[in-house]
Task: structure prediction
Amino acid sequence: MKEYAFGVDIGGTTVKIGLFNSKGDLLDKWEITTRKENEGQQILPDVASFIQAKIAEKKVTLEDVAGIGVGAPGPVDGDGNVELAVNLGWKNLNIPKVLGELIHVPVKAGNDANVAALGEMWQGGGKGHKNLVAVTLGTGVGGGIIINGEILSGATGSAGEIGHLHIEDNEEIKCNCGRAGCLEQYTSATGIARLAKSFLEKDTRDSVLRTGNISAKSVFDAAKNKDAVAIDILDKFGFYLGKGLASVAVVVDPEVFVMGGGVSKAGDILFDFIKPYYEKYAFSPCANVKFTTAMLGNDAGIYGAAGMILK
Amino acid sequence: MKEYAFGVDIGGTTVKIGLFNSKGDLLDKWEITTRKENEGQQILPDVASFIQAKIAEKKVTLEDVAGIGVGAPGPVDGDGNVELAVNLGWKNLNIPKVLGELIHVPVKAGNDANVAALGEMWQGGGKGHKNLVAVTLGTGVGGGIIINGEILSGATGSAGEIGHLHIEDNEEIKCNCGRAGCLEQYTSATGIARLAKSFLEKDTRDSVLRTGNISAKSVFDAAKNKDAVAIDILDKFGFYLGKGLASVAVVVDPEVFVMGGGVSKAGDILFDFIKPYYEKYAFSPCANVKFTTAMLGNDAGIYGAAGMILK
Result:
């Protein structure tokens, strides 16, 4: 078996690159700037040059490299085609083809959220499972679905976009996607802060949240200190997320939900709010699904990218 | 290539068996009684004897048979294990192992609804697609999901059980599954009749539905004749089903929804009620999914079972 693989996670600001051995250990990692000018034409050549240089520096030969995995923002189909990646300027680009012509090793590519989900399955919070849903509660809500150890991309690359699951019929404020009532409007960091402001306006009780900045973190901190309003806010958060994940479960029936993103740093209290509603709304055979926390943080993308080659 | 395969669809009353050629043509089909006594021990031996007899009768040799596919009611895992099939009396039975010892050809097995979905993909309304969701609107609501041409079973065999997608928070009447507010409570044949009764109680307008039996068929027939109450009832049906399928789409992102079951016999009017709500609630990239009608009727199960071997 070839000894090494590279995992590449292309973001709008930087490209993260990791060198892994075939056991899945991260040996070294770096970041380079994402050069987006000229429709992002330089991005993959930059990646290729950097990897060539690192191969030389590490005294590795190309024959020792099993391949390069790449995660990119936006829809990526099963063959690694990107129709449009607005954050990079890319249009109609096939990542494996372009990168494979620059550096002669096998290349695989996927959407960054899906690739990160694969990383959590391979070496993170979902290790030991082949069927999982990764949920990222950050500024927005993202998701990645792994079925039998493989990324589920879907017909348009939108599989697992659970932030845009419709969950509330009575919402008037629009989501970024243009519709109203999406899961992300209540369960992202932004969504929790919005819920909090709306609760505080309608509620007359004292709360530590009436002073200082309101953020997802301040709401969780207040709830940990038994602030009654904060607890009610997170009960509503748990209602939406528990109900939403119950819908996801009856469709793909995962072994485990792996929760990541900034909001997941609140810790186990997260599950205290989600699980009662999940269990209430889930189809009985799915009610005993496991909930775990993502373990790889910002490295999930490079792990998953390497995992596409090595797992 | 071997010339033939058998597709077996085991139901609680009869077992349907089809003989297919390798092109996917159904050459002949039969039904035998499902002998459920003694925990259903005789079912697979009956199938084996019947197939042996048919092979002899058709002057085919076992060497010409590529294999036998089997659909069975209840959860069946990816290896063909059945933990419990209440309708048959089966407990902890591995279909490929038991049947493969009785008749020495490759055997594959899956849940009947999932296998029927595969049948529609292979030779029915989903032909030409590899990612689809089959929706069966019958006495209940069932579903089957095909990803990259393969059945999605899920961790507990419950993937695609979309009849039990939670869709209504304000429901007091329990679904058969023990919870309240499931999609099947509003969009099955039974559910449509229930919606109709509830609308007629609250509404004072004249309607042809106030005389005669109320059934899903009578509601669709009345709507075709412009009965205003029937149209409102089906608008509600379309709201629930459109919203539910939009949730399914943002999870698995299929190319096509294939609608089957007794209710789908209403014809294209079905889509007139579903699509406006589907498009309202679907994540934009999934909004252009195709809707088609199942084509194989009660034969979908034997087609899909043979398809597991031949596709």
In short: The mean pLDDT of chain B is 95. The CA atoms of residues 133 and 145 of chain B lie 5 Å apart. The two ends of chain B are 12 Å apart (CA to CA).
